[in-house]
Amino acid sequence: MTATTTINVTLPALHGAQRQIVCGGARFRVAACGRRFGKTLAACGESVIAASQGKRVWWVAPTFEVTRRGWNGVVNIAHRIPGVEIRRGLREVLFPGGGFIGFKSADTGAGLLGEGLDFLIVDEAALVPEDVWLRDLRPSLADRQGGALFIGTPRGHNWFWRTWLRGQDPEQSDWQSWRFPTSANPYIAPQEIEAARELLPARMFQQEYEAEFL
């Protein structure tokens, strides 16, 4: 018999809109959110849960520097789990049951090839080139029938927008999407949002805080 490793994970509390994303049942999920909504925190928690179950997880961002936010969030959760190995130089987190989370840059080319994955986070997806998803990342989910969560703030009518639209189509049963403004985060003071509204040009505020695809 093969022994089963049970790992207890304590996650940060999520607000209601974050829970909608994490609890969505579709294989591919798209979350277009305003700044400071908390999309990174939600993705960190889901990544740690997946890896603690022995799954192979990648976190992909436009550049290696942008992965820092996800890396810090994952390490903050994972370092409390006995037996977890944190490889800071490689930005990898290894779990006792064989699962792992690897942080990758979308501009590494061949560095995105060769892995079979169970779960994938595409962070700031609007800034990741579409061909990286189609050519490099989507095939990595095929053999293990893995899923993906795309998170980011809108950047016009690009492939992230088209992917979000797919999640709004009831005939696309494998896809699910949400659009949440910054105000959906109850921990952001309303006066901070109003201050941004007064400071920023209207279209910039609509994009950055109201998560509108303009």
Q: What does this molecule look like?
A:
This protein is α/β, with parallel strands linked by helices and about 210 residues long. About 30% of the residues lie in helices and about 20% in strands. The protein contains seven helices and eight strands; from the N terminus they run αβαβαββββαβαβαα. The protein has helices spanning about 15-20, 40-50, 65-80, 130-135, 160-170, 190-200, 200-210; strands at about 30-35, 55-60, 85, 90-95, 100-105, 120, 145-150, 175-180. It has an eight-stranded mixed β-sheet with strand order 3-4-5-2-6-7-1-8, with helices on both faces. A hairpin with a 5-residue loop joins β4 and β5. α1 (about 15-20) crosses α2 (about 40-50) and α2 (about 40-50) packs across α3 (about 65-80). The longest helix is centred in the first third of the chain and has 14 residues, at about 40-50. The chain starts with 15 loop residues before the first helix and ends in a 6-residue tail after the last helix.
Q: Which stretches of 5+ consecutive residues score pLDDT under 50?
A: none
Q: In angstroms, what is the radius of gyration?
A: 17 Å
Question: Order of strands in the sheet with the most strands?
Answer: 3-4-5-2-6-7-1-8
Strand fraction: 15-25%
Quick structural summary:
The protein has 214 residues and is of the alpha/beta class.
